Model the fold of this input.
Amino acid sequence: MSVVAGSVGRVTPSAAPVPSASPARTPTALDALADSYVGTIAALDPLVATAMGVPGFDRAMPDLSPAGHAARAAAARAMLAQVAATTVVDDVDAVTAAALRERLGLEIELFDAGETQRELNVIASPLQGVRDVFDLMPMATREDWDVVAARLAAIPDALAGYGQSLRAAAERGQVAAIRQVEAGIRQAEDLAGPDSFFTALAAGARVDGASLAVVDPSLAGTLERGAAGAREAYARLAEVLRSHLAPSAPAADGVGRERYALFSRAFLGARVDLDETYLWGLEELERIVAEQEAVAREIAGPGASVADAIAVLDTDPTRLLHGTDALREWMQRTADGAIAALADTHFDIPGPVRRIECLIAPTHSGGIYYTQPSADFSRPGRMWWSVPEGVTDFATWREKTTVYHEGVPGHHLQIAQTVYRADLLNSWRRLACWVSGHGEGWALYAERLMADLGFLEDPGDRLGMLDGQRLRAARVVLDIGVHLGKPCPERWGGGTWDAAKAWEFLRSNVNMAEGFLRFELDRYLGWPGQAPSYKVGQRLWEQIRDEAAAREGAAFDLKAFHRRALDVGSVGLDVLREALLQG
Done:
């Protein structure tokens, strides 16, 4: 996809498109409007432009000041007005209009509530986004490094604007919990320190195997100055957090029912009964534990516990990988094997989508994540593993299901196929619309589906899948429990849920090293509603599938259902339900 002077044009991949489930479709006035809005988004938020693969904005950073937030909200309001004035001509248009109303409406609600200006947490706020975008940028040629240098030079203004927003929100009494502020200070200081990511970025710049300092000393100097400016900007941000936010930051982690309900809708694209969902989370956790215990006895013998089975698996040399090179190779081999096995049998997988690149991330947070391909697939979909410092050994039984989650049939199939469907979907639907409950719910649905299809017959691999499902069920309970201040079951401490009870609950239900687990807890406490969107999203996906199967009876075809569902793209789950079950 190319962007010229704010207009967005489509570039269809050169590979032949997969057979369409419907006749060729002529783009509509609403498609043109949605396409143009992608250009608006890209101009107002260059970080999003880079993530979408929209060229022309990689030298810039967004305006993170109150004025920048207001400009994005104003654009959303203007777009909604245009959508209301545009005629819907077919079913695809109907979904586009519904999705735009739902997504942009929530964007405006969040802005009006002050949530966008106050955003600060340990994983997904501007503090991290400004740095993380560099992982998506090409760095092979002199021209690439020139773009990187320009974006580095834009960091000080971006972070200064972010600090202005945080201070303005603090003056209104809107401050993140002290746990998030203190973690933010530590992260900002790391990025400002002598071992900063930015230092390593500039020092490691190379072109055709040669140091940039040799190839182009002037550009290397510009890059080093940009890195120094970025470090100084993060040092100033740390001081803003320390001086302007920490003194008034609340000790309580919970955000309360009203704020939580808004976040839940934003992450799910659906309204759910939070109290019923909490009770379901407790029941689902018990069900998964019982299933785990049964598999544990298969692994370690009669009467064995889950811990006994884990001990057996963790000492099995055939299930261990040593070093990140071995990890990356195993990830790639496993991902490629899944694509080969599933293509043309259980799923329609277009040619360009059959390529995924597995990489070790330059960061060390412990996360595993996926980044979408560019619109023309020149940048492939990528699975990243951010390995903590000092971790050198990896157990495949824990992670095979993770590869299915991030790769195929999980995020890669879901997202890359949507990007590919330029013959059916406008640019906004393909590149810009992302709903966590839809995306993460599908990825968990995909994990369980792989077990149902026989790809996790090995008891160790199946225990790994259940281990992940148990984590996701546990955090439904924890997240809603803490943020809504719900009563805690006696077996988990009684009284009211808080961070201390949540920690013991996690330790009892999640098989992770303490460092991973501490970060996970901080993430849930600072990003309310996001973690439950995985398991609740899976529940809603399964409900939609089962309702479709009940309606269609003997005519129901699972492969065809998946094709229809993925062709809708990542929309809110209420919109998805309507699109798949209407009529």
Notes: The first strand starts at residue 2 and ends at 4. Confidence is low (pLDDT under 50) at residues 1-22. The CA atoms of residues 167 and 244 lie 6 Å apart.
